[in-house]
Design brief:
- By secondary structure, the protein is an alpha+beta fold.
- About 35% of the residues lie in helices and about 20% in strands.
- The strands form five sheets. It has a six-stranded mixed β-sheet, sandwiched between helices.
- Helix 10 packs parallel to helix 11.
- The longest helix has 27 residues.
- It is globular and about 85 Å long.
- It starts with 16 loop residues before the first helix and ends in an 8-residue tail after the last strand.
């Protein structure tokens, strides 16, 4: 029927019934344009079926868990206004057979303007950070990097701490929450001088929705995304190359603290160890070279995407400012030289957590001992390119 669409109308989805019936009632027959579009949808339907079968058989031909053939399985959800820049066209696709709960791409939009390409990318980054936290957590994202993040006893406190991490960068940011956004949490966002682009949370209470859509000056434009119940995160990540695709296991597994080693003369205090844990949890979400400075369950400063690790360290220190005393520094990869340690010591930092594994490890350890810094080697790297 699809191949014969010049003369035949094929209907493969109940969602098509209303349009076909309306056209038949109005014109007495279907148009060629409609038949051609319906034929294309029919081929897509059968292609999805065949792809599922092919993927099943391809899955039996694996090398270390990777199928011999990577099958497509995405359907277009929406054409976006533009891509990363206005001159680029863009669209968003969803998994044809969704298996992951609580995702941005399948979230329900409750308010605001149409989502942009950058909004979706930032929302996904924001939600990934908070989904990996057991405590109430909030993240503040700019350009896919966290400028603020925090955990606390309540979501309201976590959000306030996250916004206080870098108030300047928080303007025009995207937020992620891992609990229902209630009225008290929404009130944090209604303060004068604050502006956010979008918020994703598992749920918004009726009171919070009322506040966020009536009180702030930016009420009409803020995108509120209700993602639903948070489930396990996707086990694989994909990155397109020109003419190809990179596939890897997602960096979502918790680190085993039994593998951590204190390599300095001074042991970290209980408080420093807590701050180290949070700094280490944050580095996997910051673009490499990544440095995080954290205290009391709060991200104070982050250095992201720099070509040298000492540059990232200097940026994180500058962002943390006077709050740096007593904080911990996390690095997503080893320090090749003591220069970052010297910068940290000059700023007053006394705790560092990093993977270790450099030829220059001993020089870095010696520098820590010289400045009275406690340092942990985790034995695991967390690059994010």
């Amino acid at each position: 029927a699809s191949k014969n669409h010049a003369f035949t109308t094929i209907v493969t989805n109940p969602g098509q019934y209303a349009e076909v019936l309306e056209v038949l009632k109005r014109d007495g027959c279907t148009s060629y344009e409609l038949r051609r579009r319906l034929a294309g949808e029919a081929f897509a339907h059968t292609a999805e079926y065949d792809t599922a079968i092919a993927a099943y058989f391809a899955g039996s031909r694996t090398e270390e868990g990777f199928a011999a053939t990577m099958m497509p399985g995405y359907v277009r959800k929406a054409v976006l206004r533009y891509g990363e820049n206005p001159h680029q066209k863009a669209a968003v696709y969803t998994d044809a057979k969704p298996t992951i709960k609580g995702t941005v791409v399948n979230a329900k939009q409750l308010n605001g303007k149409e989502l942009s390409y950058n909004n979706l990318a930032d929302l996904d980054s924001a939600f990934a950070i908070v989904k990996m936290q057991d405590k109430p957590a909030a993240s503040v994202i700019k350009h896919s990097n966290p400028c603020g993040a925090a955990v606390a006893a309540t979501l309201t406190e976590a959000l306030q701490k996250a916004m206080d991490g870098d108030p300047l960068s928080a303007f025009g940011s995207v937020l992620g929450l891992n609990r229902e956004c209630d009225a008290a949490t929404a009130e944090v966002l209604c303060k004068p001088g604050l502006f956010v682009e979008a918020i994703v949370a598992p749920k918004f209470s009726a009171e919070a929705l009322e506040l966020l859509t009536t009180k702030p000056k930016w009420k009409a434009n803020v995108r509120l995304m209700e993602a639903g119940e948070i489930g396990p995160m996707a086990p694989w990540t994909f990155k397109t190359l020109e003419g190809g695709l990179l596939v890897q296991q997602a960096d979502i597994e918790p680190d085993n603290e039994a593998d951590w080693k204190v390599v300095t003369e001074r042991q970290p205090t209980v408080k420093e160890l807590d701050d180290m844990r949070f700094a280490w949890a944050m580095v996997r979400h910051v673009k490499s070279n990544a440095i995080t400075i954290c205290k009391d369950g709060m991200l104070l400063g982050a250095g992201a995407g720099q070509m040298s690790r000492v540059d990232s360290t200097e940026i994180a220190i500058q962002k943390a400012g006077e709050r740096i005393s007593g904080a911990a520094l996390g690095s997503d990869a080893f320090f090749p030289f003591p220069d970052s340690i010297e910068a940290a010591a000059k700023a007053g930092l006394k705790a560092v957590i990093q993977p270790g594994g450099s030829k220059g490890d001993q020089g870095v350890i010696d520098a820590c001992n010289q400045y009275g810094i406690a340092m942990i080697f985790t034995g695991r790297r967390h690059f994010k390119h």
